[in-house]
User: What shape does this take?
Amino acid sequence: MNVAVDFKNVDIVFGADTTGSLAMLDKGATRAEILEKTGNVLGCAGANLTVNEGEISVLMGLSGSGKSTLLRAVNRLNIVSRGQVMVKDGDKMVDVVSCDEPTLRRLRQHQVAMVFQQFGLLPWRTVEENVGLGLELAGMPEAERKLKVGKQLDLVNLTPWAKKYAHELSGGMQQRVGLARAFATEAPILLMDEPFSALDPLIRTKLQDELLQLQKTLKKTIIFVSHDLEEALKIGNTITIMEGGRIVQSGPPEDIVLRPANDYVRDFIANVNPLSVLTAWNVMRDRRDLEDAGEGWLWLDRRKTTRFKIDAQGLVVAAERNGQPAVWVSVDDIEKSSDEASHVFWAKPGTSLKLVMLAMHRSQTSPVALFDDQSRFVGAIGIRDVLSAVLRR
Amino acid sequence: MDPVSNLLAAYKIPIGLWGKAFFTFLTDNFNAIFRGFSNGLNLLLDGLVDGLLLLPPVAVVALIAALAWYLQRSRALAIGVALGLLFIINQGLWKQTVETLVLVVAAAAASMAIGVPLGIWAAHKPKVYRIMLPVLDLMQTLPTFVYLIPVLTLFGLGNAPGLIVTIIFVIPTAVRLTHLGVVSVPTAIIEAGQAFGATKRQLLWKVELPAALPTIMAGLTQCIMLSLSMVVFAALIGAGGLGTEINRALGSRKIDLGLEAGLAIVVLAIVLDRMTRIGVGGKK
Assistant: This one.
C-alpha cells in the first residue's frame, strides 16, 4: 500500500523561542514543567504515524491531547518545531515542514484540502462562491470553476441552495458546503478537524453516513480528528489515541477495544459497545488451540458438546452434536433455518460478533465454527469466548 | 518652592524652542515646496467648489438625492436628503454649504486613502501598531489650535491648510477602525483561506478586507463626522464655508446667523451619515 502522509518524530511547541523547550523535552520533561520553565506550550511530542492512501485515519483524544495540533501540521497551519511531515505530491513525497512557500501553496491548492469544525465559510459569499474558493485561489478561470462547483453541489445535494448565503443555512447544511469546498479541489488528502462536533447528534450521524458513502467512490486519504469514540470506531480504518501531546496507541478499531494500551485508553473505551466493533475473528480460538477428540475429530467447545472431523485439506467431513450427527449451516442462512438442536452454525472471520451471538442463541448455545474463504476450518467460538470479549476479561 | 522643584524649574527643557526651530528650519529651506503644494491644493479645491456652484443648486440637490438612492436603495432617504438640502438653499447658505461639503468629502477621502493602508499595515505588524499608537494619540488629543499655528506658517491661509488640519485630526480614526476591522477577522476564516492555498495578497483581498469591510465603512462615516466637526477650526485659517459663518456669528454675537449655519452643518452631517452607512445596515 502507498503511503499518503508520514509523520516522523514530530514535535510541536508553541512559543517564540523553542530551543530551550526542545532540550527540556529531550530530557524527559513533562508538558507542565515546560510550560512553567519556558512559558511555551507543548502541543505534540515524538509523534510517529503513517497514513496509507485511501484509508480513514482517526486521531482521538480529549481536548488538549494534541490531536488537532498534529492534524494541522499536515498543511502547516501549525509550525512543526522538529521532525518531518511527508506528504504525497504526485509520485514523490514532500516534507511540509521544510518546503518553500510556492510548494506549500501548491500542496494546499491541489493535494491537501481541509474541513473545519466551525465550518470556516466566508459569510459574504454565496454557497457556490464558497465552494469555489479553493479553485479560485488556484487561479482557475470562472467558466471552468462554475462547472466544477456545480458538480460538487450536486454531489452533496446543495444545488437548490447555491445562491444562498452561508448564514441562511442550518449547521448541517453549512458543513455540507465545507465538505463540497474541500472536495472541489480534488485534493486526494482530506484533513477533517472535528467536522461534525458542532452538529446535533442526528445530523452528525447522517453526515457520517454520507461521508462513508462518498468515500466508497472517492477513495480519499482522510485524517479525521474526533473526541467521540463511537464516531472514530464507525468511520476509522485506523485509530490513533493521543494523550498529553503523545500518541499512546495506534491500530485498527478492534485492537483498541480488545487490547487497550493503558488506563487512559481503557477509560476511553469503557462505554463503547463492543458489539459494534468486534468480529468473529477477534474472539475465536484458533483450531490449534482446540482440544483433540481423537481420530481426526476436534472439540469446538470446552464443554465438549460439539465436534468436527477435519480432513487433511482442513475441510469438515462430519459433525456431531451431543453425540448425534449434525449438519453445518452458514450464519447467513440463519433466518431460513429452524430451531433444531442438530444445527452447527459456521461464520466467516469478518462476520460481526452480533451475528455470532444470534447464531448461538438460535442453536441453544452451541459453539460457532469459523471457515475461511476456501471453506477450511480455522477456529471456533464458544460461549465463554463471547462472554470474555464482551466483558473485556 | 522646595529645592528639588527649584532645581527642575531652573533648567527648563526648551521643547517649545526646539519645535519652533524645527518649523523655522522647514519654512526657511522648503518654503517654496510647501507653498507650491498649498497653492496647487487650493486651486483644486476652489475649482471643485466653483464647478459645483456653476450648476443650478436644485440640480445638484437632485444629483445628491439620486446618489443617496443609488447607495442605499431607499426612496425615503432620497426624499429626506432632498428636503434637507432644499432647506439649506432656503436659508441662503448654499455657497457656504458647497464649500464645506467639498472640504469635508476631500478630507474624509484623503484620510481613508492614507489611513486604511496604514491600518492594514498595523494590523499585520503588531510592532508597527505599538509605535503608531502614541502618534495617533498625539494627533487626536493635541489641541487643534496648537497645530493651527505651524500649519498656517507653512501653508499660508486658505482651503488647503484647512484641509490639512482636518486630515491630521481625522486620520487616526481611519487607522484605528481599519486596524480593528482587520485584527478581528475570525481566525477560522483566515485559516480557511490559508488552508486552500491563498497567497498573502489573496488573503488580504479575498478574506481580510471583505470581512473587515463593515468596520472600515463605519470608519468612513466617522471620518466624515469628525471632518464636519473641524469646519469651525478650519475656517480660522481661511477655509471658507459654514465654519466662516459661525465664526462671524460668534465675533458679532449674531444668534440668528449662528443658528442658521449650525443647523446647516447638522443637516449636512445627517445627510452624509445616512448616505455612507454601507455594510452596517441592511445591505450585505
